[in-house]
Amino acid sequence: MLPYGHSHSLLFFPFFGFFALVISFLIVIPYWFIFKKAGFTPVLAILMLVPLINVVMLYFLAFAQWKVVPASSVYPAPPAGSYPPRV
Question: Which of 28, 57, 71, 86 maximizes the CB count within 10 A of its CB?
Answer without folding.
Answer: 57
